[in-house]
Amino acid sequence: MKSKKSKTEQRALKLILNAGKEGLLQSELWKLLDISTREASRIAIKFEEKGKVRRDKVLNNGRWTYMIYSMKEYVTLKSIEGCPCTICPDVDRCFTGGTKDPRTCLDLTAWIDPRTESLPFSKILVQEEAVIL
Ligand code: SF4
Questions:
Q1: Ligand 1 within 6 A of 33 CB?
Q2: What's this model's pTM, rounded to 2 decimal places?
Q3: pLDDT tens sequence across 70-123
Q4: DSSP label of 71
Q5: Which atom of ligand 1 lies closest to the CA of 102?
Q6: Domains in the chain, CATH or no CATH each
């Protein structure tokens, strides 16, 4: 069973994540969570120290506060739009070390970095997890 503190932190993280690129004022966070300013500050600092958020000091209605931005974003289907794997007939046979291998697939490489499309395969150095031109 989760403690009240961790539930509050989860709600805080979700609110910050949902705020997206706009960010969320720290002074709004405590109101939305119905917690004290001190508790909101503690949570925000903790998240910042863990690299979960970035805080920028801002002047809001004549008072200093922080704008909090999530360091994560929701993954959307747009991020895989056009990926050749989504319509590839070989997807079931494609794996690292297989006859079809994502590390050496030119279609996938060209989708990840369209600059490689015009290069001969010999010019593309495919390493474990990265494609280097
Ligand atoms: S990496 Fe290439 S071969 Fe493998 S599923 Fe994707 S498009 Fe098909």
A1: no
A2: 0.59
A3: 999 887 888 888 999 999 999 999 999 999 999 999 999 999 988 877 666 655
A4: S
A5: 1
A6: 4-70 (1.10.10.10), 77-132 (no CATH)
